[in-house]
Design goal:
- Belongs to the cytidine and deoxycytidylate deaminase family.
- The chain has five helices and five strands, in the order H-E-E-H-H-E-H-E-E-H.
- It is an alpha/beta fold.
- It has a single domain (1-135), classed as Cytidine Deaminase, domain 2.
- Helix 1 runs parallel beside helix 5.
- 39% of the residues are buried.
- The model has no long low-confidence stretch (mean pLDDT 96).
């Protein structure tokens, strides 16, 4: 989670919502990193999780991220939760809960929906206070402007 927080800080400095993500392979090696970059790229799919999963898939040479873990500083939205299922990730670890758009238990629970063909293990609220503090700081500064 500390490496995902480093990615979130990069987003913060770039004026993006500070969310960071990393993908670890089965041995625990980081094979993909990402942070939000929607503003810079004008890409609505530029969420940290999507960026990290794309890089991991590129590193592995396959879209199937079986055996991998996605670690992200904020509970994924419906798009990112769905992408985690489609990528066949083994595990999803997140920090801060997102009561407004979270799709891993808060508002929806996409990854545990029994109707889907794959359901990753979920580890919630890892370093949640640190992850939430960065988001709070970002939005406090944004409102001041």
């Amino acid at each position: 989670m500390r490496r995902a927080l480093d990615e979130a800080r990069v987003a913060f400095e770039a004026g993006e919502i500070p969310v960071g993500a990393v993908v670890l392979d089965a041995s625990g090696e980081i094979i993909g990193t990402g942070h939000n970059d929607r503003e810079r790229t004008a890409d609505p799919t530029g969420h940290a999780e999507i960026v990290a999963m794309r890089r991991a898939a590129s590193a592995l040479g396959t879209w199937r991220l079986s055996g991998c873990t996605l670690v992200v500083t904020l509970e994924p939205c419906t798009m990112c939760a769905g992408a985690a299922v489609q990528a066949r990730l083994d595990r999803l670890v997140y920090g801060a809960v997102d009561l407004k758009a979270g799709a891993v238990g808060s508002l929806w629970d996409v990854v545990r929906d029994r109707r889907l063909n794959h359901r990753p293990e979920v580890v919630a609220e890892v370093m949640a206070p640190e992850c939430a503090a960065l988001l709070s700081e970002f939005f406090t500064h944004r409102r001041v402007r």
